[in-house]
Amino acid sequence: MLLNSLAALPALTIPLSFAISSASAQTDALPSWNEGPTKASITDFVTRVTTQGGPDFVAPADRTAVFDNDGTLWVEQPMYVQLAFVLDRVKALAPQNPGWKTKQPFKAVLGGDMRALAASGEQGLIQLIAATHAGMTSEEFAKVTTEWLATARDPRFKRPYTELVYQPMLELLAHLRANGFKTYIVSGGGVEFMRPWTERVYGIPPEQVLGSSIKTRFEMRDGRPVIFRLPQINFIDDKAGKPVGINQQIGRRPIAAFGNSDGDLEMLQWTTMSGGPRFGLIVHHTDAEREYAYDRQSHFGKLDKALDAAAVNKWTVVDMKRDWKKVFPFQE
Amino acid sequence: MLLNSLAALPALTIPLSFAISSASAQTDALPSWNEGPTKASITDFVTRVTTQGGPDFVAPADRTAVFDNDGTLWVEQPMYVQLAFVLDRVKALAPQNPGWKTKQPFKAVLGGDMRALAASGEQGLIQLIAATHAGMTSEEFAKVTTEWLATARDPRFKRPYTELVYQPMLELLAHLRANGFKTYIVSGGGVEFMRPWTERVYGIPPEQVLGSSIKTRFEMRDGRPVIFRLPQINFIDDKAGKPVGINQQIGRRPIAAFGNSDGDLEMLQWTTMSGGPRFGLIVHHTDAEREYAYDRQSHFGKLDKALDAAAVNKWTVVDMKRDWKKVFPFQE
C-alpha cells in the first residue's frame, strides 16, 4: 500500500500543482494587473495592514482609502466628462435662452469655438456652471445628470462614459473593501454630478463621495421641502482643497490615496506624510493605444509636480501600458 | 406516552409562559423606555421598515437616521456644553492675553458678567470662537477638546459632560443600528468639538458626525502637512442649514430624524415630508427633577415652532418625565 502510494506520487504531482495554481488564479484579486513591483506594492501593503499582530496592522475602522475620480477611476480625455456635460447642456438649453447666441461664453460653446471658450477663463466656466448646474432642485439635477449619462457617448470609444472606467481600479476598489477598507471618492468634480451613479459603477455609496459643490438653500415649495441649487461656488475640492474636504467630511486621516494629477498632490501628501503604514499611488497615463498618454503638458489632468513628488515620497507610479493587462472592462 | 404528555400540559404552561415573558424581557431593545404609545411608535416604525416583503420595507442602504446632539443626545442646560468649553478656554488663555481684561466680550467672560456677554451678541460669540477654536491645527484642537472633556464637570451633576447623555437615546441608537440603520449626528455644535468622543460615547464614528465648522487651510509646517484652523465661520449646521448639510455630506434623504428644538425643525421637515415610511421624533424636556423642564421660552434649545409642527406632522413627542424610565446611565 505504502509503496504503491509512493509510486503514484510523481503522477499525482501534476494534478496537484495544477490544482494549486488554479486555486491561486482564482484568488488573484487583481487579475487585470500584470505581475511586477506595482502590483506587489499594492498587495504587500494590504497584507501588512491586515495582518493581525503584525507591526503594521491597522484596525478596520481606520482603513480609509481615498480615490480621485477623473483620470484615476474613469477617463478625463479629450476633456473632463463634466465639461462635456456642461457643453451639451448649454446646447440643450439654448432654445430657451436666445440671448446666448451673442453672449460669451455661451456663444463660444454654441459655435464650438474652443479657443474663445478657453479665453473666457475661470469666470466663463463659473457662468457656464451657474447656467447648467443651478436654478433647480437637487432632485431635478440628479434626473438631468442621469438622463444625460444614459444617452451621451464618448467621442472616441462611442460608449457611455460610465463604461470608460478602469477595470484594474475597479478590482483595486473591491480588493480594498474585501479587506475592510472604506473607499471614498475625493474629486474636483461636482459632488451631485457623481452621486447618482457611483454606487452602481464603483460600489461607492453617495455618503462616501466628496466633490466640489455650489451653494444650496433649503426651502418649502408648494408645501414640499426641497434643496434648491444656487449659482454660487461653495467649495472647490481640488489641490489643497482635497485634504480640507477630507478633514471636513470624513474627519479621519486616510491611510491610502490614489490619484493621477497635480490636483491630487496635497491629498497624497496629507495621506502619506505621517507615521504608520501609508500608501500613495499615481496612475500615469502612458498608453495612447488603449487609452491616452499624457502628463506634464496636458490641459486636463496635468501630472508634473505630483510625478516629481512620487519619486521623493516613494509613491507607487502605475505605468498604464506596462502594468495593466486591460484598461476598460469591455476590452479583451 | 401521548396520554402522559397531554396530562402534563397544564403543568407545563406555567414554566412555558414564564420562559416566553422572560425571553421577551431579554429582547427588549429599549429597556429604559416606559411602555406606551411613544415607545410603540419607535418599535413599530423599525419593524415596518425592516419587514421584508412588507409594504414599508426599506433597503438597508437607505436606512439613514439623523440625530441632533445638544438636548437630544446629551444635556444643553444650564448652557450648551461647547459654550462652557469656550468660557473655560478664555479663562485658561487669559494670562497669555492681558488685553482681554479690558476688551469685550472677553472682559465679560473673565468677570462672569453674563448680561454683558449676551449683549455682545453673535459678533461677540464669533470673536470668542475665533480666540478659542482657531489658530491651531486640527490635531491640536482635538487634543485641547479631549483634555477639557476629561477634566470639566457639569455644575449640577458634578460629572463629566460625556456622562450626561440620555440612556434611552443610547438604546435607541443601538436599536436602529442593530436593524441596519446608519446613525448620524447632525448638530449645530462644532464638528471638530464632537468627533474626538462620539464613537466612544454614542458609537458614532467621525465620518458620521456633521456639525458647524470654521474654515481650515492645508499647509506644510516644517515639512509636515497640517490642517490649520482659521478664525472664520465656514458653515452653520443649524435650522435650514441642517438639511443643506445632510444633502451636502450624506447625499441621501434620511428616513428618520430625532431632535428637540426649533433648530431641528427643517431637518425633521426634510426627513419626513416626502413619500414612503418616515419617522420624526422630538424630545420634550419635561423633567425638572431628573434633568430639566423647558420649551417655548428657553435660551438654549428653544422648542416652540417645532412643537407646533410635531402635532401637524404627527411626529412622536417624547414626554421625558412620562416616557423615560431613567434619564442618565448613572441614575437608578
What does this structure look like?
2 copies of one chain form a homodimer. Chain A is of the alpha/beta class and about 325 residues long. In chain A, strands 1, 2, 3, 4, 5, 6, 7 and 8 form an 8-stranded mixed sheet that branches. Helix content of chain A is about 45%, strand content about 15%. The N and C termini of chain A lie far apart (about 50 Å). In chain A, helix 3 packs across helix 6, helix 7 crosses helix 9 and helix 10 crosses helix 11.
Summed up, what is this model?
Chain A contains 13 helices and eight strands. With 332 residues, chain A is of the alpha/beta class.
Which labels suit this protein?
eight-stranded mixed β-sheet; alpha/beta; 13 helices; 332 residues; disordered N terminus; homodimer
SSE topology sketch:
2 copies of one chain form a homodimer.
Chain A: H1 2-26, H2 37-50, E1 64-67, H3 81-93, H4 106-110, H5 114-119, H6 121-133, H7 138-151, H8 167-178, E2 182-190, H9 191-202, E3 209-221, E4 224-235, H10 241-249, E5 256-259, H11 265-272, E6 279-286, E7 293-294, H12 305-313, E8 316-319, H13 320-323
Parallel strand pairs in A: 1-2, 1-5, 2-3, 5-6, 6-8
Antiparallel strand pairs in A: 3-4, 6-7
Helix pairs in contact in A: 3-6, 7-9, 10-11
Please summarize the sheet with the most strands of chain A.
Answer: 8 strands, mixed
**Series of H and E elements of chain A:** HHEHHHHHHEHEEHEHEEHEH
> Gyration radius of chain A, to the nearest Å?
23 Å
- What is the arithmetic mean of pLDDT of chain A? 92
